[in-house]
Amino acid sequence: MKAYIIERDLPGIGSMSAAELAGAAATSNEALAKLAPRVQWQHSYVANDKSFCVYLAEDEAAIRQHAELSGFPATTITELKGQIDPTTAG
Hints:
By secondary structure, the protein is of the alpha+beta class. Helices cover 32% and strands 31% of the residues.
């Protein structure tokens, strides 16, 4: 599986309540169940009008299928080539 960041344009997501975000997560989970094991959601970061989601997937097509099933746009899909953090410096 490859790792991806998905940028989603979702106006107003940053002001959604916890209950609304839980509902969005449930909708995403329903779509993921239909596509398993081809795509897995790791976590998402919520900003004012966007979310940035980390996924593992067979390919970009699986992510696009999830977007279609869930109704959440996959505005930009970027394959990740690696990960670094402060400990990478040694």
